[in-house]
Amino acid sequence: MTTPLLEVRDLHVWFDLSHGGQLHAVQGTSFSVEAGERMGLVGESGCGKTTSILAVMGLLPPNASVGGQVLLNGVDIMAEGEDTIRPHRWTDIAMVFQGAMNALNPVKTVGFQIVEPMELHEVAEGTAARRAAGELLEMVGIPAAAAERYPHEFSGGMRQRAALAMALACQPKVLLADEPTTALDVMVQAQILELLSGLANDLGLAVVLVTHDLPVVAQVCSRAAVMYAGEIVEAGPMDTLFHSPRHPYTRLLFAATPDLYGDEDVVSIAGTPPRLDRQIDQCPFSPRCDRTFDRCKVERPVLKTVDVDHRAACHLNDVPAGAPA
Amino acid sequence: MSEDLATPGTSVAAAQGAGATDEPLLQVQDLYVTYPVRRSMVQALRRVPKQYVRAVDGVTFDVRKGEMVALVGESGCGKTTTAQSILRLVESSSGSIRFQGTDITKTPNKALRGYRRRAQIIYQDPYESLDPRFRVRTTIEEPMTIHGVGKGGSERHRLMLQALVRAGLTPPELYVDRYPHELSGGQRQRVAIAASLVLDPDLLVADEPVSMLDVSVRAGILALLDGLRRDANMGVLMITHDLSTAAHFADRIAVMYLGRIVEEGPAKQVVRNPQHPYTRALLSVVPKRDPRNRTAPQILRGETPNPVNVPAGCRFHPRCPVAEERCKTIDPQLHTAPTMQTEEHQAACILV
């Protein structure tokens, strides 16, 4: 078996709370992504998807503690914490933050903000860096001459493209994109998604797309992991997740999403996710699930392989076909 | 006139139970909203001509009782300005907005109170629209106090509980003493809806009512709005950029581009038999749930032009994939074409 480009193994994140106690935000997530692959990480707000990728970047606040492994080409870059992550941050693994388009420095030109990380990481400098910045802008669909302009002269879509160019400044192999299209209009969203797909296809960039928007993942990603209450509850090829989900949450999440051509009723999922500042000894989704049975109340299911490249954490998968559940 | 506006439900007798009726509740005709662009002193001295942002540039549509109409389009297309002028939150430049026959653009401000009670708006962000210092009871009682609804405290209390139940917050006693920060996003939006319902409005304008909410609760809020129009015979005007939501819940869809409606019709017709090239492009880029339904998106380059310089001829021609020479000079009007299945379906494109 070949080593994946990026593999996250049994990742845990705890936050120390100001009034004492801990919040277990990420509870043992494992996923991997290959070069040129587009993977989706989906779930409701607070499910731990952003925390997971911030942990991979080593960018969590000081009150967070992290456990598990982040393997880049088989080498654990989290082994010694910041010391082993720093050489890979931005140069091997880069991230586009949620709302990045609104976080550009308003008093520096866009070009300067792309050159800055290059010089900091000694990828290129001076004229070479400025030429590289121009090429990056062209790659994301902005004329190279626009490097001299300031963020306020750009539209929202262009600022998002510039934020992408900045993340790509040091030629990373993995791009973690957190809600890259959430605040954008549908036509601009289509332009950015086309760009992300192009980058994966042309540069062999591995893209992890973090979003709450299932249809976006369905259109862009080949595989996805669905997160709930800090853990991955189902992962597999996108087509399988839609057509034969093995976790009720995945099925209900699709059913809660209106589709342009779908005629069936759109149904919301009653209830709210559980609190993560206390131990969960049952299936975390069982209070909201439409197929809960006795075992769900007393035992937390673990993520198991249910088919080729398809994992799910649900007791229903242990019930033999045809048996009453 | 103001007398008529102040007594809700005068023409409810004409309503025919559930579902849309033919009686228009709201008739917007030829609505224009323009804002002057501020000139610098130097520009004024040099006599640089005054410029105007044509935010809404000739919009006509109806909302009937018990009907949900979706106004869709990208940001800057004028959909929110249209909604705001319907509520007289911004003044229109010309055109008329008739609410049950009365033109509210001509009503003096003082006489508008009755209308303001009967036309309510729900905002996009329930984190912003609720006062963080108000308990739920205060948020819902305040509009009753302002509009003099209910005789005395006990009746208002009863109406408040009733509104919470109608908005799906049951049992209401559980919520009345909470502050907004103690509620989830979906619950906050329900409180905002309850604060509108307590006045028993005839028209509900919902400006992106679910775009700030989690996917799992969106359907519940939309089903609530859907129920209000069906059961309470309210007219609902939903402003949204989400075509999937509009397709699912609205009876009719009006697609706006640069201040104009470019296509309008029954929701199913607009979505399944789109005629205007802009509508077609917009529909083609909406992500679908089923990965097998991936279609080649028809991505328009660039972004919506500035409404200060609206292109001559058809305003869509610079980005239109099928534009011809004559599109640069002819400003197309909404019309029904033989390719459409109903008279109600109209598009503003000379190639249709």
Oligomer: heterodimer
Estimate percent helicity of chain A: 25-40%
Mean pLDDT of chain A: 93
Distance from N terminus to C terminus of chain B (CA atoms, Å) equals 42 Å
Cα Rg of chain A: 21 Å
The proportion of residues in beta strands of chain A is: 15-25%
Number of strands of chain A: 12
Shape of chain B: globular
Q: Give helix % range of chain B.
A: 25-40%
Residue ranges of chain A: pLDDT <50 for 5 or more in a row?
none
Residue runs with pLDDT of under 50 for 5 or more positions of chain B: 1-19
Report the C-alpha radius of gyration of chain B, rounded. 21 Å
* Total of DSSP H or I helical runs spanning 4+ residues of chain A: 10
Biggest sheet record of chain A: 8 strands, mixed
How would you characterize this protein structure?
The complex is a heterodimer of chains A (325) and B (352). By secondary structure, chain A is α/β, with parallel strands linked by helices. Chain A has ten helices and twelve strands. In chain A, the strands form two sheets. In chain A, strands 6-7-8-3-9-10-12-11 form an eight-stranded mixed β-sheet, sandwiched between helices. A four-stranded antiparallel β-sheet of chain A has the order 2-1-4-5. In chain A, helix 3 packs across helix 4. The longest helix of chain A is centred in the middle third of the chain and has 18 residues, at 186-203. The mean pLDDT of chain A is 93. In chain B, strand 9 (252-257) and strand 10 (260-266) form a beta hairpin.
Which secondary structure elements does this structure contain, and how are they paired or packed?
The complex is a heterodimer of chains A (325) and B (352).
Chain A: E1 6-16, E2 22-33, E3 38-42, H1 49-57, E4 64-72, E5 75-76, H2 82-85, E6 93-96, H3 110-120, H4 126-139, H5 156-167, E7 174-178, H6 186-203, E8 206-211, H7 214-220, E9 223-228, E10 231-237, H8 238-243, H9 248-255, H10 294-298, E11 304-307, E12 310-312
Helix pairs in contact in A: 3-4, 3-5, 4-5
Chain B: H1 2-6, E1 24-37, H2 41-45, E2 51-64, E3 68-72, H3 79-86, E4 94-99, E5 102-103, H4 113-118, E6 119-122, H5 126-129, H6 136-147, H7 152-166, H8 185-197, E7 203-207, H9 215-231, E8 235-240, H10 243-249, E9 252-257, E10 260-266, H11 267-272, H12 277-284, E11 346-347
Parallel strand pairs in B: 3-8, 3-9, 6-7, 7-8
Antiparallel strand pairs in B: 1-2, 1-4, 4-5, 9-10, 10-11
Helix pairs in contact in B: 6-7, 6-8, 7-8
